[in-house]
Amino acid sequence: RGDTQVIAAAITVSAVPANISGCSLKFTAKRSLQDTDANAVFQLTTPTEIAITNGPAGLCDINIASADTASETQAIRCYCDLQLVDTFGNVSTTATGTLFIKLDVTETNT
Predict the structure, then answer these.
(1) Which CA distances in Å does 41 have to 66, 80, 92, 104?
(2) From CA 107, how far away is CA 76, in angstroms rounded?
(3) Residues 39-60 pLDDT 10s
(4) Which DSSP string corresponds to 10-62?
């Protein structure tokens, strides 16, 4: 909770790096799979919170800011995915998983 975290992601298709140059990416974390996107714990997008670091190699950094989790009052497990919209408008979910937000001892982050 309240920590800055960077997740380095590699997007592949059939184990081959996907060229993500010019694509849009969205990372969403939710308490429940039934939650709407509006009720997500947080949702991050390119280019502000997700940086494509090497498009031809399919590499990006997902930047979770301190403020994205600072308001959590208990430890939670989030369901998350990384969605890609290619240059033709095709949408695909490139990764799914869980993300744990743990409480910390220090409560202030300033």
Answers:
(1) 13, 10, 21, 18
(2) 16
(3) 999 999 999 999 999 999 999 9
(4) E-EETTEE---TT-EEEEEEESSTTS-GGG-SEEEETTTTEEEEETTTTEEEE
The backbone torsions φ and ψ at residue 93, rounded to the nearest 5 degrees and listed phi first, read -90, 115
| Buried residues in 80-92 as b, exposed as e (16+ CB within 10 A) | bebbbeeeeeeee
Q: Return the structure tokens found at 23.
A: 């694509």
- Vertex 72: Cα angle to 69 and 78 (nearest 5): 70
Residues 110, 104: Cα–Cα separation, whole Å: 14
- As a whole number of angstroms, the distance between CA 16 and CA 72 comes to 37
93, exposed or middle or buried, with CB in 10 Å at 0-12, 13-18, 19+? Answer: exposed
Cis amide prior to 56 (ω within 30 degrees) = no
Per-residue pLDDT reduced to its tens digit, 60-80: 999 999 999 988 889 999 999
